[in-house]
Structures are given as C-alpha cells and as structure tokens.
Amino acid sequence: MNFMFEDFPKKENLVECDDVVDGRRRFQVSPMVDTICRKTTPVDLMTHDNDNYLISLGVNGSIDNWAKGFGLSEKSLFDFLSETYLTKLRGGTAMLLIDFSLEGYQTDWLFRWFHDECSRLNIPPQAVVYTVGNMLVDSQYEEWADLRGITDRIKCLPYANFEEFIFIKSKFAAPKTTVDKHIEYKKTNTTWSFNCPQKRPRKHRNEFFTKMTESDILDKGLCSFPDKDHHILGETHDRDWGYYISRVHPDYCLKTFVTVVSEPQYYEEELSTFTSEKVFKPISCRHPFIVLGGKGELDILKSRGYKTFSNWFDESYDTLADTERMDAIIDVLKYIDSIEDKISWFESMRTVLDHNRKQLVENSSRPDVAITELENYYKEYFNE
To answer: For residue 31, which phi and psi values (nearest 5 degrees)?
Structure first.
C-alpha cells in the first residue's frame, strides 16, 4: 500500500487543524497505519500524481468532537481535506482511512453523517474506510445500510488495536506470571478472590461498585475506584491516562484468582462491544478473567482464538441484558470467593491460561485480520 502524508516523518495528515481534543491534536497518527509502517517501509510518493494512495487519520475522544468539531472549530473533519486530497478521492486514486481504534464509542448518527459528507463533497463512499475498537461496527453498518437500501457503502473495520500493544508491554511481566509462579506466590502470600481496577468513573462502574458493596463482596477483592476512596493497595490515580493504558501490573494477578475486566462500554444503548487493552492484560499474565463489558465479548475473544472459563465458572452472564449481566457477574464472584481450595482450582486452568498467553503471542506476530482486510480492500478498490 502507498501512503500519503502531509507531514511524512510524523505520518500525519490535516496538520493545519489546531483543534485540541483531550489535550491532543484533533487529528493524529493512525494506530493501524503506524503498525503497518513499523513492519514495512512506506515510501514518500506525494509527488507522484499518477499513483494510488491511502490517506490516513487517527482520531480520538468524543465522536462529536473529531467528526463535527463540536466545542472546537465546529468544522467537519471533511472540511479540512485539501483540494489535492479531495481531487484524488473524487477521481478514485485515493482512499481515506479514519482510524478510531483507540476507542470503541458508537453513536446512532455516525453512519448517516459519513454518507451525507460524501454526498456533500462528491466523494464516493467506497473511498472511505472507518476502523474502530467497537468489534460490532461492521455488522452494525451492514444492517444499517441494508435497511436503507444503500449499495454504495463505506468500509467499516473492527480493529483490536490493543492486542499487540499489550503483548509488547507485557514482555517484562510474562516471566513473573507463569502458572508455576502464580501457584508459588499464592501458596506463600496473602491473596484476594479477585481484582477489579476501575480508573475512569463511568455509569456502569458506579453501578457495579454499588452492587459489590451491597453484596458484601467488595472487600473480597483488590478494587479501585477514584471517586469511592477505595484504592488497590492505597493506589491513587493521578498520572496521565497513557500511563494506565500501557501498564501491565502482574502483582494484581499474582495476589488474586480472577480479574474483572471493566471495559469502557457496557450498556446495550452504547451500541458497542470494545476489546480494549484491559482484557488483554490478564491474558498476558496468565490470569482468568470475567468481562464487565459489552454483551458478547467472550464470543469475540473466542473468534480470535482465545479460550474462556466456562468449565470453572458460569459464563452465561455474557449473553444477558444489562442489569441481569451485572447481577450474574456478582454471583460468579460470590461463587469464586466460596471455593475453599482456590489454589487447586486455579492450577486446574493451567492449559487454558498457557494457551491464551500463547495465542496472544501468535496473534501479535502476524498482521491483524483488520489489516489484512484493509490490504485486500485497497487492492480491490484500485484494481491492483
């Protein structure tokens, strides 16, 4: 694939936009393209007008802000495209990749907005690729387009960007968290039944914290929540968000028997199932996990080759509606807390825990399915 950047060394586009979202530029480096470029050597072909290109943008924060500029310049993302870019997009010699894979947000107006902007600027929808951490986005878009009889479609790609990222960050932690290390540590140190780190306050996290308190399960685990004065081992949350995303903390796994993964999205009304960095952290540390996230995340993980833990605790929670799902997770935690010989119970999961760590390594050593699909779409679009 050929790439077009306004700032080639930095791999950035729309550099004249000075809008700031959550302390960062509104348009950044695409995580997907950054990954591709790390493994290949892109060539600066900006002066070769007869070639085909991929124009890439990384976006972050609120969809309202990066798409429509609400609260910023209030200009559409598409209004920052140069005449050169617009000409190439209209002429079928460029594709625009909008990469939102650092987040999993979805909103009901987004697909319509993409099509309205393409119509306004005479850009073929097929020239637009949208990738996001919401692993349901492709099926959601297909259903949306089918209901409206839309045949000229953008390309939507779900992308688990954080899988390889956490694999790289976990290389130091991995030797500390072999199953044997877990057993050795748990036999000789104080342990808790579970860990549940929750940094940023969200509605479902407040609700879950309340349910843990009401069910008398809170003090059975290592839990953190910045608004509730209940921190993991006295930890406070006063660092930059990037610190928490990139940190893999094996101590929490060594001191507990299961991780509750509190994903950013939970409720069905949020229209998202996001496999964030949080779920890959226990996998990297050979730790069983329960997902407090969008319905169906376990099936998504299985589709990527991972195994889950239905042989050791009830995973039917993953199929339930919002309130029932949370209550079922509380019941699972109560069950795990009631196990008398937790060490033997943990050790019996050895094969699955080792498999998941190996799967993380394997998945991270080859191009993600979303990258392969992008490459195939690129070739199809440009008839290469």
So the answer is: -60, -40
pTM of the model: 0.93
Residue with tokens 């060394």: 9
Strand order, beta sheet including 3-4: 3-4, 53-58, 94-100, 128-132, 155-158
Domain 164-364 top-level CATH class: alpha beta
Residue-level pLDDT at 239 = 64
Compute φ and ψ for 319, nearest 5 degrees. Answer: -105, -5
HEC-encoded secondary structure of 281-324 = HHHHCCCCEEEECCCCHHHHHHHCCCCCCCCCCCCHHHHCCHHH
pLDDT, one tens digit per residue, over 217-263 is: 999 999 887 655 544 544 555 666 666 778 888 999 999 999 999 99
The residue extents of the domains of the chain are: 3-159+368-381, 164-364
- Using CA atoms, how far residue 56 sits from 80, 95, 345, in Å, is 13, 8, 48
What does each C-alpha distance from 207 to 1, 69, 267, 325, 330 come to in angstroms?
46, 31, 11, 12, 12
Which one-letter amino acid corresponds to residue 322? D
pLDDT for 32-90, tens place per residue?
Answer: 999 998 877 555 444 455 689 999 999 999 999 999 999 999 999 999 999 999 999 99
Q: What pLDDT, in 10s, does the model give residues 298-328?
A: 999 999 999 999 999 999 999 999 999 999 9
Which residue bears the tokens 């992008």?
374
Beta bridge partners of 12: 7
